[in-house]
Specification:
Layout (H helix, E strand, L loop, with lengths): L6 H8 L4 H6 L18 H10 L4 E2 L6 H8 L23 E5 L7 H10 L5 E5 L1 H5 L19 E3 L6 H16 L4 H5 L4
Parallel strand pairs: 1-2, 2-3, 3-4
Length: 190
């Protein structure tokens, strides 16, 4: 060792001791030089962080709420700040379905099929009073979306403002962030 040795060089030199010393010094070694270099986290937290910051919604507007959904991705509200700016036209490339508008009986099989074609993990936001509780259309032809597919976040209003949809997206991100067991689901571990 020369006179220009760093803390890392000293640690590497000292760590070349015998194997017998290894187990006795595990708790006593000083790793403080690594605190500014190494970031530690749980694998679940890292996967959830990546998922929550790369949500790809599917372009799926059913009624007037779709206009508010489109304005959410425009420059004034800029949903790109939340990692959800990539609206996809295919259910196989998206992981978020935003049901924006009323769900008619004719649309039920289509919505169910599109939901089943989405890869796991997948989430659903019900946007507007019509999608959530049929709104002003209280008749036989319109049904709530939660009777067709499971819904993660509900957005009230008729039509809801883009800020409300962004808030729902942030709530969904919190839900994704707290999801346990993602490493087991993602990795082929036994």
């Amino acid at each position: 060792m020369g006179t220009d040795s760093t803390a890392q060089d000293v640690w590497v030199h000292e760590s070349t001791r015998s194997d017998a010393d290894l187990y006795s010094r595990i708790d006593t070694d000083e790793y403080s030089f690594l605190q500014d270099v190494v970031l530690t986290t749980k694998l679940d937290q890292a996967i959830n962080w990546a998922r929550k910051n790369s949500i790809w919604p599917m372009t799926f507007g059913l009624a007037c709420c779709a206009i508010e959904m489109m304005s959410m991705s425009a420059s004034r509200f800029d949903v790109a700040r939340f990692g959800a700016e990539v609206f996809r036209g295919s259910p196989r490339q998206s992981d978020l379905m935003i049901i924006a508008g009323r769900v008619a009986n004719k649309m039920v099989p289509i919505i169910r099929q599109l939901y089943q074609q989405m890869p796991e993990p997948k989430w659903v936001i019900s946007m507007g009073a019509c999608a959530t509780s049929t709104g002003v259309f209280n008749n036989y032809a319109v049904i709530p979306v939660n009777q067709v597919i499971p819904v993660d976040v509900y957005v009230p209003g008729c039509p809801p403002r883009p800020e409300q949809l962004i808030h729902a997206l942030m709530l969904l991100q919190k839900k994704i962030e707290r999801q346990p067991g993602t490493a087991k689901e993602t990795l082929p571990l036994k």
